[in-house]
Write a structure and sequence with these properties.
heterodimer; A: 10 residues; little secondary structure; B: 212 residues; mainly alpha
Chain lengths: 10, 212
């Protein structure tokens, strides 16, 4: 978690 | 993707369909906070900037487009089609008291200090508190239409289901997203009072009324 553009949730 | 996440997203979708259905069938947006709905547009637009440069999945893409467009559609309904049914004198929570601190927090507590990441963080914090104008409005009027409470219940359940999703992801993938988790717990916590009345009164067939 916390990696950039690793936001796979809505 | 896991069952908690999927059910959470479906609850989120359901909440939007319930809200649009309420407006169309009653031809009114009475009892709905325009400010809360406007905050959701800001939340989705600032969070989904990655639509322009990052592909996650078709599911992710379609959902993002849906949340942005449906939230704009709701604002359109409130601002134009059913405008006379909206009473701004009841919708008086100051949104700058929410947006300002959320932006400041996003500048301080973020994963990376760059534009898109700060916008993403801001959207997470803002979503956590975006329901305040709506709850404030219900507190003032002391009541809510049953369909409005179904909308709010679905919206609260959506974020509540993300919590077991994070626990599941911690054990299966080892991923932890502290910003989303802390904000998500706060967001869910704001619904506890509402949930109590919803489950003990509305689901027992009574009207949603707050003690005077």
């Amino acid at each position: 978690g916390g990696k950039q553009s690793g936001h796979d949730e809505l | 993707m896991n069952i908690f996440r999927l059910l959470g997203d479906l609850a989120h979708l359901a909440s939007i369909f319930i809200l649009v259905h309420k407006m169309h069938t009653t031809r009114s947006c009475r009892g709905i906070s325009f400010k809360t709905q406007a905050l959701y547009v800001v939340v989705f637009v600032t969070r989904y900037i990655d639509l322009f440069y990052s592909w996650i999945s078709l599911y992710n893409f379609v959902m993002k487009i849906f949340f942005i467009s449906s939230s704009c559609y709701i604002l359109y309904l409130m601002k134009y089609r059913f405008r006379p049914t909206h009473d701004p004198t009841l919708d008086t929570f100051k949104v700058e008291y929410l947006a300002g601190p959320c932006f400041a927090l996003a500048l301080i507590f973020n994963y990376h200090f760059d534009f898109t990441e700060i916008m993403w963080t801001f959207s997470i914090y803002l979503e956590a508190v975006a329901i305040f104008p709506q709850l404030f409005m219900m507190q003032r009027t002391g009541e809510a239409e049953t369909i409005t409470t179904h909308y709010l219940a679905a919206l609260g359940i959506y974020r509540a289901l993300y919590i077991p999703n994070w626990i599941y992801r911690y054990y299966t993938e080892g991923t932890v997203d502290p910003i989303a988790i802390v904000a998500g717990i706060v967001q869910t916590g704001l619904y506890l009072d509402f949930f109590y009345v919803y489950f003990t009164k509305v689901l027992q067939g009574q009207k949603f009324e707050l003690p005077a």
